[in-house]
Design brief:
about 20% strand, two-stranded antiparallel ribbon, Rossmann fold, alpha/beta, binds flavin mononucleotide, 8 helices, single chain
Length: about 200
């Protein structure tokens, strides 16, 4: 696993869906590609590779947090900026994302302040949906959790892809080049903000 460097932003792209053909995975993977093409170190992580039981305090007391929650937290901690592409479920965000966040939020390693991994990263949000609003309403809920629940710094800029079924070409790029430039702008801003916070 790479180590976090103070001098250089490193972005993590994750999606709140583990579905094989997830539009949000496509968006997160595109983000990683754009970052990479613009000289920004980036990693895509599939939450499907970090399965965890639904949070239950008894599991936590009896067995401790799942190993995958520890691994995900470790991955977050070696990146300074995190982009989350979040599916919208009934005007909120996905249970997979909430469960992953909840487990990670309850791990406090020795010498750490509570929620340190959230408080010391910069976040940017995006969404893709087959619907016409692109998952925008779910992002409002996710923002509340990150900002109010976890004291995270979340950029005001966010990027949504409505009508996702028509939006991506066969290489996973956005057909609308203006939209792809807008996404690039959000990624570059995330990298700059991560650099300012950590540099
Ligand atoms: C339980 C459920 C609720 C949904 N609610 C919404 C919604 O409120 N707004 C929306 O745009 N799409 C909604 N959808 C459709 C999802 O946006 C769509 O399934 C999308 O492909 C999920 O993201 P993914 O492709 O990354 O897996 C919902 C889907 C599910 C399964």
């Amino acid at each position: 696993m790479p180590t976090s460097s103070k001098a250089e932003p490193r972005l993590l792209f994750i999606a709140g869906s583990s579905r094989e053909k997830s539009w949000n995975k496509k968006l997160a993977q595109l983000g990683e590609k754009i970052a990479d093409a613009n000289g920004i170190k980036a990693t895509f992580a599939d939450l499907g590779d970090y399965p965890m039981p639904i949070y239950n305090g008894d599991i936590e007391v009896n067995d401790g947090p799942p190993e995958n929650a520890r691994k995900l937290k470790a991955l977050m901690s070696v990146h300074t900026g995190i982009f989350i592409a979040s599916p919208e479920y009934n005007a909120s965000f996905s249970p997979l994302l909430k469960n992953s966040i909840d487990w990670v939020s309850h791990i406090k390693d020795e010498g750490e302040a509570p929620l340190q991994v959230f408080k010391t990263r910069v976040f940017a949000l995006g969404a893709a949906s087959p619907g016409g609003m692109g998952g925008l309403r779910g992002l409002a809920q996710l923002r509340i959790v990150l900002e109010n629940g976890l004291n995270a710094l979340v950029l005001p800029d966010q990027f949504v892809v409505p009508k996702a079924m028509e939006a991506f070409d066969e290489n996973g790029h956005l057909k609308n080049k203006d939209n792809q430039e807008t996404f690039k702008g959000v990624i570059q801003k995330l990298a700059r903000a991560a650099h300012l916070l950590h540099g």
